[in-house]
Amino acid sequence: MTTENEDTQSAPPPDDIEQLKAQAAENWDKFLRASADFDNYRKRVAREKEEIARFTTERVIHALLPALDNVERALEHSEAGTPLHEGLLQLQKQFERALADFGLVEIIAKPGDDFDPAMHEAVSHVESTEHPESVIVEQLHSAYKLGDRLLRPARVTVSKGMPA
User: Fold this and answer.
1) Whole-model pTM over 0.70
2) Residue-wise over 67-101: b if at least 16 C-beta within 10 A, else e?
3) Which of 1, 28, 100, 151 counts the highest number of beta carbons within 10 A?
4) Which class is 104-164 in CATH?
């Protein structure tokens, strides 16, 4: 004679075992997929966060570059050694340090450098006895890079070569 307790503890029929194994395998597969989806979600969110930060930094720097250009123009027109000139120099250095902290790098186009349309914007062309054709004569504004991305090309005057 068996008791009711013994009947409930007996092994399930083989068909039930196979169903349970299939369900366990299905649940394991669902778990692995959910885990992979979550991992992909975390990576995507981290990537989007970096893109937003970079985009915001670029916008702020683009907004500040004209002010830095104006400080440089004011320096060119101020008399060296005056308190105004010294104050403008300090302001320029402060701007440059702050922008460098965000990863901004200034690229200077020197007279005599070859014109590179990927890095320079030709504002004008002039005849030159000193410089051959397609060579930078003067830089009007510096180029700036943020990381590996060019934020602003250098604005330059380019030689047309010898006068005709």
Assistant:
1) no
2) ebeebeeebeebeeeeeeeeebeeeeeebeeebee
3) 151
4) mainly beta
